[in-house]
Amino acid sequence: MDAAAWDQQYQAHELKWGREPNRFVRQQCERLPIGDALDLACGEGRNAVWLATLGWRVTGVDFSSVAIERACRMTSQQPPMPALRLTWKVQDVSALALRAGSIDLALASYVHLPPRERDEMLLRAAAALRPAGHLVIVGHDERNLAEGVSGPQDLDLLYSPHRMRTLLSASAGLTVEVARTVERPTPEGVALDTVVRARRGPPG
């Protein structure tokens, strides 16, 4: 969907994804050393706001202006210090330019793009990591198409732990610490997600 379609999706709900962070984002990020984070396709900001409450300085980027308006509203409801750590941008993450060595965490939570755009985005995010920085990916798994519920119904838009491991280790030079398919209970049944956490090594 394009930005206008996502604007309509967000306008149809008070908070489409709720206020709490995604459970797998929480699991993969809650013990990481705190620094500067980038939340790619951040939606209404639930993960970014949660990271800011932990002490992260977070930039959330999404091409839906409605989503970013909601994120700003959520920011205004936070205590002063977390709110000061949050920055929001309306921009297409598939065309986002990132400076090398500028972030300690890149988060891509349910960012479903065509394969070439997705891989290029992830490689740019990997290149932006500082030494010991992390890239965390959560998305609908390709097995979900036949074995799970909801999510994109186009195989090309889905994630694979093996494909992500290969991309991030061979093409980005990251150490892949986690790459697996996980179950996520929903009211409609069990969904299958890919969860990945990869780390940039120290300077060579």
Could you tell me the strand content as a percent range? 25-35%
**How far from one another are the termini?**
41 Å
Radius of gyration: 16 Å
Question: Major sheet: size, sense and barrel closure?
Answer: 7 strands, mixed
**Would you list the SSEs in sequence order as H and E?**
HHEHEHHEEHEHHEE
User: Which bin fits the share of residues in helices?
Assistant: 25-40%
Average of per-residue pLDDT values: 92
- Tell me which oligomeric state these chains represent: single chain
Q: Give the strand order of the largest sheet, numbering strands 1, 2, ... along the chain.
A: 3-2-1-4-5-7-6
Label the structural class.
alpha/beta
Task: Please tally the β strands and state the result.
Answer: 7
Question: Which blocks of ≥5 consecutive residues have pLDDT under 50?
Answer: none
What is the number of helices?
Answer: 8
